[in-house]
C-alpha cells in the first residue's frame, strides 16, 4: 500500500508577508528573487541580474577572510575525531546533496556523473548507516545518476521522497512515498513548456523539468543575455502567483509556494525511520547549495546532528563544518565507513 503524505498533511500556502520563514543568514538577493513573481519593473530585473552575477561561481567574491571563515566553519576532515566524539553513542543518519557534493558541477547538467569510486563509497556508506540523497533534481533523474537501490531518494528539493527499492537493512519501507506538491504537477508542466518556448532563442539556456519544480540553467548563457533571460522568466511567472523563484549555483528554481523544502524532507525521513523523537540520533547533512541551508537550519534548531557545507569560498551558512569539493566529501565518507567497520569488527 503506497503511503502519500498529502493524504495526512495538507500543504500550507506561505503568505506573501510572512517573514517567519526568513533565515537570518539569507541575503537581500533572495528577497529580490521572490519579489520577481509579483513585480515587473525594469529596476527589479536589473537587481535580479545583479543577484545572478553575485551568486555565480565566476563572480563570487567574499568579504569574509578564508582564515577567519575556516575558524568558524573548520574542515570536517580536520575535525573528524571531534565529530565522532560528539556522535558517540548515537545513531548516525546520512543526508547527501548530489550536484556539487557527490558529483562536480558541470556545464551540462545532464552529464553530472558521479565517479565509480564515489558510487562504491556511497554503497558502503549505506551498509553502515541509513543514507538519503536529497537533491533539486527530479527523483528519477538523480536515481539514474546514482543507481543504488538501497538508498532513500528525495528529489525536487524534497518534494518527491521514496524509500529504498531493496538492499537496505534500515526499515526497508518500499511503500514510503511523500509527494506534498502533487496538485501542482499540471502547473509545473505548463510553466516548463512555456519557458522552453520563451527561451528558445537564448543561446545556452537549459530548461529542466524536475517534476515538482522547473530549473532554468544559465551556466552556458552569455552574461550579456542574462537580462533577456530574466525578462523571459518574469513574463511567464507573473501569471503563476502560486509559484516562487529561488536561486542556486547558476540555476534558477521555480517551485510551488508550500511550506516544504530540504529541511522538511530531512524531518520527514527521520520520522519515517522511527527517529522523530529520539535523542540518540545524529543526522549528518552534506550539501553545497543555498537550498541545503534549510536542512542545516533545521539541524541547528533541533540541536541535533550537524551540517557540512561544500564550498571553496567563504559564505554565510548554518552549517558547522566545511569541505571544499566532492573529492573531500568522498574522503570524509570513506573515513566514516572505515570507522564504522572497525567499530563493528568488520
From TrEMBL:
EC identifiers of the protein: 3.1.3.12
Domain of life: Eukaryota
Pfam families attached to this UniProt entry: Trehalose_PPase
Biological pathway: Glycan biosynthesis; trehalose biosynthesis
UniProt entry tagged with the keyword Ribosomal protein: no
Family the UniProt entry places it in: Belongs to the trehalose phosphatase family.
Name of the protein described by the UniProt record: Trehalose 6-phosphate phosphatase
Taxonomic lineage: Eukaryota, Viridiplantae, Streptophyta, Embryophyta, Tracheophyta
